[in-house]
Amino acid sequence: MVIDVNPNIAAIKPYTPGKPIEDVQREFGLSRVIKLASNENNMGLPASVQAELTTKIAELFLYPDGAVFKLRQALAKRHQLDESAFVFGNGSDELLLLIALAYLGPNKEALVSEGTFSEYAFSAHVVNAPIKTVPLKDYTYDLDAFAAAITPQTRVIFLCNPNNPTGTIFSSAALDSFIEKVPSNVLVVLDEAYFEFAVGSTTPDGSVYPDGRDFLRHYDNLIVLRTFSKMWSLAGCRIGYGMASPAIIEALNKARQPFNVNRYAQEAALLMLKQTSWETEIRSFVDAEKSRLMDGLVAIGLSPIKSSANFIFVEVNQPGSKLFDKLLQKGVIIRAMDGFGFPQAIRVTVGLPNENDAFITALKEVF
Ligand SMILES: Cc1ncc(COP(=O)(O)O)c(C=O)c1O
Hints:
39% of the residues lie in helices and 14% in strands. The protein is α/β, with parallel strands linked by helices and 367 residues long. Strands 2-8-7-6-5-3-4 form a seven-stranded mixed sheet, with helices on both faces. Strand 3, helix 6 (119-126) and strand 4 form a beta-alpha-beta unit. Helix 5 (92-103) crosses helix 11 (246-255), helix 7 packs parallel to helix 8 (172-181) and helix 13 (278-299) runs parallel beside helix 15. The longest helix is centred in the C-terminal third of the chain and has 22 residues, at 278-299. Residues 39, 91-93, 117, 160, 164, 191, 193, 227, 229, 235, 240 line the site of pyridoxal-5'-phosphate (PLP).
């Protein structure tokens, strides 16, 4: 007998993650495989952090601190916010699900962009919420179209800045005028997973990249999401956080499991935050490598989109999945963008210099 699955769950198309290095090594008998598929920070962890973390292994028999006290304190200081303004998740992915559990459901609609991170729609599907999609404009979030799409059913609006996968940003002025128009009973989720790479960026028309935190003071219906998976090299630990007004934090805390952020992740995040020059060093490293990659793509005759994150999106005038396969055989894993709604595009993460060189060399060969 087959047990009935709830139809909204049965209809979910499973998330296709970046292909793991080990799989590719096995499939193609390759000893060296480069992964530029999931926007991790391939610089990894500083040796001092790794050494310190090994001393924490002995404590792993204990449950973690469910309130994430030490990290909460450190972040409150860093962001100049009250300690009560934070909620933590097993990656920011979990926070997206908690938001859906707390605020969405049948007849409680989510607004999401086309050509963006798939977990917004996924979270809405899990709770059987209707989803309305808003097209991108020039590969960028179209906040005017978002404002026009709001209906009395709308409960949560998901924004991604910089956008994954296009790397584009919307401006502070655009965000300001958009939030003004959102009714106060609608939650705006501002996903800033790539915030630290975008600081100081300007939009094509020269306006500034917003810092979501600045908007928290004025809007009670906003949650800003950040993660330790990208700039902070901790994708494998699974830890992210949200910053919002007390009512939102309380609702999400009610929906989460008591020990949702593991002990190791909490320790690792704290240690990474103590690396005072990390953020600026990585940002300038990524900027330099990104422009080298852009040059390499342009030299092949492609037109990559200006990115404010640690990845580049480029249309390749052929099925992205075919290019993905060809690069895979050469030991380079990137992402085909068909799953994001761009059948002729790829996204490549900015890796280490030798990895970026290997990608460009392989791309030249397959073109
Ligand atoms: C835009 C965006 N938001 C959230 C996430 C999830 O990050 P985390 O590892 O914190 O779950 C990702 C991961 O790729 C992402 O690209």
